[in-house]
Amino acid sequence: MVIDPHAHVLPTTFIEDVRAGKFGPDLFIEQGNKWELLMTRNLVFGRERVHRNPLPARVYDIELRLKDMAATGVDRQILSVVPPCMYYGLDAGLSKEIAASFNESLAGLARTYPERFSCMATAALQDPQAAAKELDRAATLGHFGVQIGSNVAGRNLDDPALDAFWEKVVALDFPVLIHPIDVLGLDDRLKDYYLMNLIGNPLDTSIAVASLIFGGVVDRFPTLKFLLSHTGGFTPWIRGRWQHGYHEREEPKSRGAQPPDTYLRKFYYDTIIHNADCLEFAWKTLGADQLFYGTDYPFDMGYSGVAREVPGFSRLPAADREKILAGNVRPLYRL
Predict the structure, then answer these.
(1) What contacts 95, CB < 8 A, 6 or more positions away?
(2) What pTM did the predictor assign?
């Protein structure tokens, strides 16, 4: 059995609603050079940003997705929405409406293909109280987790306003997939060479993790379960610097955090690192119990190869490979 908890989808029902103008002028579709583009105007870091999200067939075509799963040996995907479509920079009311639409659509896919798909919710984190209510509703639809962004329109995840959301996540026992969005430096020094993804995505995940640790969120809500995209960004590799800085400086202790190494095994990490030595390092330092298979389907920086041929897998014991491919994710998502 191979289960992929890091797989994204943009439901055709949502695309049709955008075409019909259901969500107003802030969301619209244009024709691009190769395919159509889903365009969004929203505010991030206090300024308007236009998101341009390509709509290649793999992002919405379920039959093509099922063929890809068969070809790569993936038995089940736990679906989450395309990350930029979490829309934390839009008007909160509109974002809540979009999140509700996504949650209905993903739950519908899971009901239609119960042997192949499960689903995790999305919520409008710019209104944490409303986000908590949406999680309650999503649970009744059949969602078993939630995907959130690495920041909320430029605010880090230690923002005290999010406590109402964390309380609901704990009450529902939902695992939280953190995915980078609206990354730091996107419009400045990372705008060339695809650095916004090559560096920006793992950097923003690392900022999110550091904020959760040093900001006391993990201490206030010790039963939270986080799954980190892209093997945690830079987190496993920078841990020594965090640990050293904690002992040398007062700032990391300002909200009562313990040494950062105390927390690293409270997080889970997917296998999307694209390097055998790096995967082996993650396995040695984090432990097999903390690693989950993942693909980031269907995007270019994800893993598109055969599931059992992840670079570095051949170096791991067979029992640990089985944990990573399915054993660890089953109890977390109650599969």
Answers:
(1) 87, 88, 124, 126, 127
(2) 0.95
Read off the amino acid at residue 109.
L
- Number of separate helices (H) and strands (E) present in the chain: 12, 11
pLDDT in tens, 230-244: 999 999 999 999 999
Domains, in order of start, for the chain: 3-8+68-332 (3.20.20.140)
**How far is it, in rounded angstroms, from Cα 145 to Cα 3?**
15
Amino acid at 180: P
Tokens matching residue 251 = 């700032």
> Exposed/middle/buried for 258, CB within 10 Å: 0-12, 13-18, 19+?
middle
Torsion of CA 89, 95, 101, 107, to 10 degrees: 70
pLDDT, one tens digit per residue, over 266-285 is 999 999 999 999 999 999 99
β-sheet with 226-228: strand ranges across: 146-149, 176-179, 226-228, 267-270, 291-292
Instruction: Identify the three-state secondary structure at position 163.
Output: helix
